[in-house]
């Protein structure tokens, strides 16, 4: 008799769970990781699959794994500058194709993990070039550098994300290679944020606040407000929680910049904010289950990233180099290596999904545990 | 019959061992690691325990784990400069409290392992500030930077001590952040030791010899002779062997400085010696069982540390940064990674105690082995 | 009955294998790894054994493990400059003896693995010294620096070769220590390859092509054509495949230099080529089984090494330092860490031999597998 009761109860709980799961899936059709798309395109043409991988790669830069976000971001880039959009597209394709050719893990390729570094390298090479837009010779180093990014999957052994290490290494090597007065690929030297300005005017508060959303756009090296807001929208589409952390991190970065009296340009253009935004997004919800403790840790990491970025920019600025996103990459890697009670919130790299999904899977799993215990009590 | 003999013999050997152990314990009440204190304060107020943890943290900078040594050193710092003493106290407390709050391993916290980096950061921020003593705004970055040091326990995976890596990283980041002409936290650029002086006078031998004890004081960034000798006394209180190695290492560092013709200031102030002292102390007795081979290795490491320090100071001096204790930290980590027959003398990190205690536990353990073998023979 | 057939067949296949092995051994008496020599000298005087270890160490610089190649290379060095030859000999002996004294793994010592870093350090210290030849005081730092190289075997844990990391670290430390105007050990600052020349004359094609074999000689810091060709001969003696990759890599490096418009001197002297040569040799046949895929990877690595070398030279040139072989060492280490389908071609460090031998042992092993399967079928 009691056996039947148990099965009925189990079935009921299962149907309840399946219903809630179905509702959740319905909500997450266009948001979150969009895993259902992978099954749908599995049998389709290679070009279509490559496009989806590429769009996932585009979104991966802001730690999102959603082709729609990628499409929005690509649109924002073409809006800001068609030349930059072209470079970005080329970079993500060159990088992904190289990974396919040398036979990297197909799951990683499909997740866009081999595309985002190539894209960033291509974008930054365009930004730092002083030869102007539509300088076609630039496509040669862009393709080569992006392809080199496709080679790399390194930090698997330590359960760490490869993150933007390849991008940061390759772009620094390229900029060092060409120098500032290269006859083929000229570029302007980078001014460190600590440099004093001759006529030190007062800060304009509106411009500083405008720098906060621009900090999100600076992740893709855009300095226009419209495209930056569109990129922010793409983040919110993937995960609203990530979007909140992006803005919060950018604000924290701007605050850090203010406290260290960096150049006004640096604050106005959002350059002070983007490392903070990246650091805040990575810790707040993505690699750690969201809770008030990880939220505090995310803010701490945003501050650490922002200050490290100022420090590295001042250091690398002495040889005319930008600090790119070294600061956020290093501090986030450090946070992931952190031991202590916070390590309990860490999500293993293989199971990282959209923050909402992470919370959901954790609570479901805990609910499952409770149910099990209850049914054992019967 | 023989069973009784055995038990009697065993008991006798036990009582002999317990007696010698009691004598040793009696001698080591105030020297060595003072582990008995931990049991004594276990049930006491949090403030008292925090004070002991902090004092252990103060002593940990010179690789000692003894609250009395810590108290002596703190007295020396207040003697040299009350402002520096205050900064040091604040640093060690901020760092230890952060570690408590984020839930680091309580054994590590009680051993002062989360305090010494914060203290060093605080001291160095005070030394490099050109705003003068009692510049209260400095307490803000001091607290933040020290708290950041409390986050870190990193190298557990490789059985290496975290050492002063966090301190070295954080202080370099802070100095890079502020730059030399920061409106809020100004500082003077650091002159590299290889810089030639305009009027090259002859060296004064007495001053050079005076630089050797000053080298021990420079570990805490004090340049006065009295406090330096008091700090040396604190080391001797913990372990006379460590004290000998400290002076020896400082002398080796001064010798290395002489052979490379560094600036006279660098020799006179003890800056040439302190990396050698740290390197010599770490290898000679602390992380390796003391023997003539490890003694030679300690001297070799002192030379390596001192030369590396000159090299790094020259390198970092080009961007106006000090080399801090990077040299000693790196070379010591290298020595701990060394394979070959020397690796046999290596003491696992978890069992590192005062050098005398290390030797004692090894010989006791060997004696125990022999006894056991004898009793098995009966 | 069938048991006898099997044994007969087995014996026949064994005798066939032993015959082919004997022929191979006959061919490989003077080429390849010359392992038979080790058995022959095992019982001989220490001095003779030390000489063989040293010569192996000399050849190890170009990744060869053959004492005859080492002798040829040493002859080339004495031909180019007797002083440099003396320094090289001293360096390899000091380093090997240190390794013997501190009790490093005897197999590694006999294979010359503890000699080549010391030799390179000694050669480079001679090259960068501006005190002229036969400046006897230089022997003191040469011996100390080479001995320090003898301490190091580090990367065993990660199945990576220690490579020339110790050399690169020690030489940079030495050059930083002495600075450019040291009273005891003076040297000229290094000019980065990206520096523009005042009167930019046209490139001379013959000189550029002459730079390709010079690039192989630059591995040993020789700039003369004759000794460079002799060194190339020594590589071909060890393994013709390695020789081809050396020339190919040097050509790739020169091409990379041309594409980045480096100084003409850099191209003419072979400095542009030697990192490419090292990178190409390491990947093409030595650490990976030779095939067309690894051949392509070798060329890619040569490009990567060459571009990284230009980048690092420009960076380190700002503080007057040379980039040595950092670029090739880092990119090759990266290639060895590469995952994906190429990792299948990777040869474990303990089994690395001459490229021809690697291919042979792989095909023999596969043949053995097939034979075994056949005999199981009987």
Q: How much is the radius of gyration of chain A in Å? A: 22 Å
Mean pLDDT of chain A: 82
Which consecutive residue ranges of chain A, at least 5 long each, have pLDDT under 50?
Answer: 370-378
Number of H/I helices of chain A: 17
Instruction: Give the biggest sheet of chain A.
Output: none
Characterise the protein shown here.
The structure is a homotrimer of 378-residue chains. Chain A has 378 residues and is mainly α. The first copy, chain A, contains 17 helices and no strands. In chain A, helix 10 crosses helix 12 (240-259) and helix 10 crosses helix 14 (274-286). In chain A, 51% of the residues are buried. Mean pLDDT of chain A is 82; it is low at 370-378. The A-C interface holds A 99, 102-105, 144, 148, 151-154, 156, 172-174, 176-179, 181-184, 319 and C 194, 196, 259-261, 303-304, 307-308, 310-312, 314-315, 318, 334, 337-342.
Task: Provide the fold topology.
The structure is a homotrimer of 378-residue chains.
Chain A: H1 2-27, H2 35-41, H3 46-60, H4 67-80, H5 82-101, H6 106-110, H7 116-128, H8 139-149, H9 165-178, H10 205-217, H11 225-238, H12 240-259, H13 264-268, H14 274-286, H15 292-317, H16 326-337, H17 355-377
Task: Note the main attributes of this structure.
homotrimer, 378 residues, mainly alpha, 17 helices, disordered C terminus
């Amino acid at each position: 008799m009691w056996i039947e009761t148990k099965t009925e109860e189990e079935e009921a709980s299962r149907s309840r769970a399946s219903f809630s799961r179905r509702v959740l899936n319905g909500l997450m059709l266009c948001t979150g990781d969009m895993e259902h798309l992978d099954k749908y395109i599995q049998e389709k043409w290679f070009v279509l699959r490559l496009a989806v991988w590429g769009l996932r790669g585009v979104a991966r830069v802001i730690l999102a794994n959603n082709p729609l976000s990628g499409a929005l971001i690509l649109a924002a880039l073409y809006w800001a500058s068609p030349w930059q959009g072209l470079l970005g597209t080329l970079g993500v394709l060159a990088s992904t194709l190289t990974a396919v050719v040398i036979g990297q893990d197909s799951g990683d390729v499909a997740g866009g993990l081999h595309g985002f570094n190539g894209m960033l390298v291509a974008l930054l090479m365009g930004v730092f070039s002083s030869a102007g837009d539509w300088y076609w010779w630039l496509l040669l180093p862009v393709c080569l550098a992006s392809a080199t990014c496709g080679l790399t999957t390194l930090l698997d052994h330590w359960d760490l994300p490869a993150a933007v290490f390849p991008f940061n290494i390759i772009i620094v090597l390229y900029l060092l290679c060409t120098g500032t007065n290269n006859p083929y690929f000229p570029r302007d030297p980078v001014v460190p944020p600590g440099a004093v300005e001759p006529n030190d005017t007062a800060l304009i508060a509106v411009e500083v606040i405008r720098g906060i959303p621009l900090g999100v756009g600076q992740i893709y090296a855009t300095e226009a407000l419209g495209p930056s807001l569109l990129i922010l929208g793409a983040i919110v589409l993937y995960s609203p929680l990530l979007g909140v952390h992006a803005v919060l991190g950018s604000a924290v970065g701007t605050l850090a910049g203010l406290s260290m009296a960096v150049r006004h340009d640096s604050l106005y253009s959002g350059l002070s904010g983007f490392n903070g935004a990246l650091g805040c997004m990575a810790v707040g919800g993505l690699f750690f289950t969201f809770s008030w403790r990880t939220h505090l840790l995310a803010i701490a990491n945003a501050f650490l990233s922002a200050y490290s970025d100022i420090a590295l920019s001042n250091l690398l600025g002495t040889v005319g180099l930008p600090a790119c996103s070294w600061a956020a990459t290093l501090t986030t890697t450090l946070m992931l290596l952190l031991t202590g009670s916070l390590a309990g919130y860490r999500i293993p790299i293989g199971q990282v999904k959209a923050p909402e999904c992470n919370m959901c899977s954790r609570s479901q799993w805990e609910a499952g545990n409770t149910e099990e215990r209850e049914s054992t009590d019967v």
